[in-house]
Amino acid sequence: MAFAIIAAGGRGTRLGDPAPKFELPLAGKPVISYSLEAFQSAPSIESIVLVVPADRLDAWSAERLQKMGIDKIRASVRGGETRQDSVRLGLEQLRGETGVVVVHDAARPLVSVQMVEEACLIPDGSDGVVTATAVTDTVKCIDGGMVAGTPDRERLVAVQTPQAFRLDVLAKAHSLAREAGYQGTDDASLVERAGGRVSVVVGSRDNIKITFPEDFAIADALLRERRDP
Question: What is the CATH number of the domain that holds 21?
Fold first, then answer.
């Protein structure tokens, strides 16, 4: 069995909208609802820790989520200044546990149960798994506004969440990063820095991250297509 940490944060991405991004409406429901429902439905997930901004804790308390049918919720806790801090605070709710922890960004509402299940299957010899898709654009390295090189895109992937790790490995990686004052780009980068080995599973191009206003229209269309194929 596995545990889940869903990290929610960020202000609105619609012009003039001050609401947190994870609360904005998408195809009739708050953005975060889709991630909660996917992890609730995933057979491998035993319990969920939700991390939200401190001023939204009451709105997304464990008690309220249970009434909404998310009975796997273990705790709702306040987030930190950075996403990395938020995941670390979520991990504190899992002290004493063993197994696998799956970390997901609530800004990716198109996560599916299948993606969660595949991430939980960490292969022997690995400390974690990242969900990723192949890079189709040519990527350039730049230096001072000039092209410094062109990496082989056959060796590149675009990483998404969910990401899953052996719980003790991720907790140690976060501890080491905090001691060193290191900020990684994702949880996998902390595990890599600590000497861990991370495998890759194929993600989905539909698993977009809500970042820009136009992403809402794309996600809305994809979600409605899922409902009415």
Answer: 3.90.550.10
